[in-house]
Design goal:
With 88 residues, the protein is mostly helical. It has one domain (2-75). Helices cover 84% and strands 0% of the residues. The protein has five helices and no strands. The protein has helices spanning 2-21, 26-34, 40-71, 74-77, 79-87. Helix 1 (2-21) packs antiparallel against helix 3 and helix 2 (26-34) packs antiparallel against helix 3.
Length: 88
Amino acid sequence: MICLKETRLAEWEIAQIRERYAVFSKESLYRAIQNGEVAGHPAWEDYVVWKNKEAHIARLRQMAECESEYARPRSAQHPVDAGLLEQR
């Protein structure tokens, strides 16, 4: 549950950056900075924040997958093992 809240917060923060610069991707923001379409400061900082938020979201999702796998019954985690046990 904490992972879900943190993920939503990070996604919201990315949405704020998208809205601020009217871009859809961090690559678009990067190009806008390089082309001088937006001021380098604070756009560079927002670009770094965006990259870090995406990495944070990926880690949170990975943690959530591990937690959900850990919470499943052993037979649900290892269907091959469960099948072998049933044959005996």
